[in-house]
Amino acid sequence: MAQHQKSTDKRNALIKATIELVNNNGFHATPMSKIAKMANVSPGTIYLYFENKQDLVNQTYIEVKAEYTKYAFANYNEDACVEKSFEMIWKRIADFKLKACEYAFFLAQCDNTPIIDEASRQEGIKHLQPLLDLWARGKQEGIIKPIDDYLLYAYSINPLSFLLTVQKRAAFTLSENQIEEAYQAAWDSIKLNK
Amino acid sequence: MAQHQKSTDKRNALIKATIELVNNNGFHATPMSKIAKMANVSPGTIYLYFENKQDLVNQTYIEVKAEYTKYAFANYNEDACVEKSFEMIWKRIADFKLKACEYAFFLAQCDNTPIIDEASRQEGIKHLQPLLDLWARGKQEGIIKPIDDYLLYAYSINPLSFLLTVQKRAAFTLSENQIEEAYQAAWDSIKLNK
DNA sequence: ATTAAGAAAATGAACGTTCATTCATTTTTT
DNA sequence: AAAAAATGAATGAACGTTCATTTTCTTAAT
Known about the structure:
Number of helices of chain A: 11
Order of helices and strands of chain A: HHHHHHHHHHH
CATH class of the largest domain in chain A: Mainly Alpha
Low-confidence stretches of chain A: none
Number of strands of chain A: 0
CATH topology of the largest domain in chain A: Tetracycline Repressor, domain 2
Largest interface: A-B, 41 and 41 residues
Helix content of chain A: over 70%
Oligomer: homodimer
CATH architecture of the largest domain in chain A: Orthogonal Bundle
Number of domains of chain A: 2
Structural class of chain A: mainly alpha
Radius of gyration of chain A: 19 Å
Shape of chain A: elongated
Largest sheet of chain A: none
Distance between the termini of chain A: 58 Å
């Protein structure tokens, strides 16, 4: 354990440092030397774990994205009705984005800039399938609007990224009540009106 | 005219080049030398128009943001009812974001990263007031949900940024029909259900 | 109209700095 | 004592910015 453990520790420290520095300074102002310093590691050591800077950022992205989707679907099973299932997933996602906001902000940054390889972006998108499946079921049952998944995502999930950014910038926190209001807005935007 | 005209041309060319290069390569991979080359200008000339790289990006942001809001409210007057007014503004914004997508993508990038000064960000936000006023009216008349403006923006306006990004990435174009669907989702998310 | 002189604008080579990355050496682990 | 992991000084390329020089424009006297 010891040897491999130590390695994982360093790797994690490097990824954590990358997230923090890129969030606060941007990719352009995040030199490898600073990442090394914050992770308590020598600059050269980074290259034992990552090919180069691009690889470090790509892998950080993939890792964070995986944690995000893992969290989102952790307690999900397909037994509940569409509406309840969606609410469960939505609230898990909200939980993650607003609580683990460092992670979520990093993702938002990567998703809105060309700092990530297209391949890594594709890799990160994979794990969203359960939500797409749920939407397919919802459309079939006439509960969710029969519109493109991109539209459903844009209106029901993505707004959380904006709210997270506002929260980070304005040093203002969404109340429990506001999260409920946000959920209502999300559901209202995609549910099929009878 | 001649002398001052020429200056404006160079300035505009520099701003245009900045947008294009930052969009495609990211801020970190956009050296001043490339900006100069694309604008057909010597590197030194940039410093006649802008203090430094940060100033160039800040001013580009402010300029694009101003164009965006100017376009959004160009044909707006406060005579129509809340719903119609919102629809008009929304469609103008959609028009801008999906047609002038280079501009909109640049804004999205700036809004989701720390590359812009906080001061410039504040400067850019100013011109949104008419929309906030409309929402205030809508809340008062019981037409729009009595929730925070950030929530209204997150659900009714911001999704367009996501759709724009998808459009740019996936080389896929939103159809007229899908824009209508998007508008419905936007309105459904913020209108007060009787 | 032409031109000469002065001012303004533009140039691009040069500068100093910073950065990503390497590798000879040291430290730690097996 | 051999192997693996980590170090950090060294390297060379790239960058933002400067400034001595050149080019272009403006003015006004002829």
